[in-house]
Design goal:
- This protein has 26 helices and eleven strands.
- It folds into two domains: 260 residues, no CATH class; 199 residues, no CATH class.
- The longest helix is centred in the middle third of the chain and has 21 residues.
- It is globular.
- The strands form five sheets. The chain has a three-stranded antiparallel sheet. A two-stranded antiparallel sheet has the order 1-2. Strands 5-6 form a two-stranded antiparallel sheet.
- A hairpin with a 2-residue loop joins strand 7 and strand 8.
- It is mainly α and 569 residues long.
Length: 569
Amino acid sequence: MDLSVPGIGWRYPPAPGRGPRAAAAVLALALLPLTSAADTASAPAAILPTGPADAATPARMRLVSQEQYFNSLGYVFGPDISVPAHFAPFRRTDGLLASGSASAGVTLAQMQEFQRTARSLAEQVVSPANRDYLVPCRPRDAVRADRDCAREFLLPVGRLLFRRPVDEPTADAVVAKSAAAADQLHDFYGGLAVALEGLLMAPQALFVVDRTEPDPARPGYGRLDAYSLASRLSFFLWNAAPDEELLRAAQKGELATPEGRAKTVDRMLASPRLETGMRAFFDDMLRFDDLAVLAKDPGIYPVFGAETLADAREQTLRTLIDHLIVRRHDYRDLFTTRETFITPALAVIYGVAAAPGWNAYASPADSPRAGLLTQVSFLAGHAHPGRSSPTLRGKALRELLLCQTVPRPPPNVDFSLLEDANSRLRTARERLDLHQSNPVCAGCHKITDPIGLAFEQFDGAGQYRATERGAAIDASGVLDGRKFDDLAGLSATMREHPQLSACLVRRVYGWATGGPTQPADKPVLEWLGAEFAADGYRLPDLLRTIALSSAFATVREAAPAAAAGGGAP
């Protein structure tokens, strides 16, 4: 059976062959009367006079991530509609996997995965267990086509999946496809599933396209239309497609006024869904995807298991959300705070006791643990399977938290002395001095090791130690000219480093605008940094400033011709 639908754009043969009540309420809202796509296209998003006057971003087309796809479907159909999926990861660009979405392509294997996922999801939606909640009408005959009922279901769903109203030609084609499949299968719901499968894997659902129009007041610039602005806001703050209320704000022109846009942004910042968006951002920024393949030698670290690894990731994310979103604390204080959360699995690493489940925990004043740099996710995540690594930890600090680039090591580097358990060189500091004396290696190690050695009082699993092979560990060092005595001193130095907040601003701005930052973004990044500092380095204020800035809704060039015309990418 052919799944192609005019106006959707992809033609691909099909592969062979609980939340519903809340989802039904979402679909019911979508059934309310709408203006046509043509009526709303002339209501452009406002360009607010905030930030550098010439700040703008490129018009982009980007592939949604697996997480964004399922976050969006969870809103439309409810959390009980799910299927295991393995979308291809993006290439990390400018520090973020999300920024790689702007240059991602689609292979035949990926198309097969999209279709497998869409087919399973569609079958679940129309199944007897879910159709009574998710399909708002009943066919006149369950073994025949019913175009009116199909339209009543498919158009509101298409609007949510496409993040804008479905134009009439596409709507007619989708309903016709459902009717033809229903008659062929002698099953109304089977036909509905075929049409829904096509919507779920349509380019309009899988790609986020910046649709623009020229800005007559600024030659050479364009501005996002209202629905594109709604999508940019939603993927930025919630890591999901717009909800019904946001689409209605776009439809009514509310995003075209400073007051309306501010009201919408404030609603989104107050939503529980902000936590989902910010967890996804920090998961990306801190490269927690690497933890999925992290392994430790059980003979060396018997207390470190899969549960420890999962809890380490969650510990850091919980700490970030509590500190930044719930309490609205200074971002820089994350590197000195003693407040976090632990589980029994983490308590073993920490050397303390903990009740089952998650527990709020504050390390004692004399404890060596304070701040994100002493959490297991960082210490174990940037170490080898059987030993610590000052170089990996120093590299991670510079690249993830200061947005600096550390060159890759040259080929054929001799690591044998670092790994030799029988070496006369007992501490990592002594062994790394060999690299400092080697001119081939010295350039990189001079920027990683003086800070990475501060972590040596924690082994490769993140457990505290005072000695290595019987020798006392010297954890002193220097970060860009500022000396410190131990990891607590490094953390305090990091808190005051000007690049710490500047790096966060750069990463958040790239996340917000859907692609890597560029040299032309320097003025807006400097302005955002100054605003961030003036607001006490509070993340919600930074998010709001970006969302209401001129640059957020302004583009430097027209969108791609296919996208501007409303067709498929």
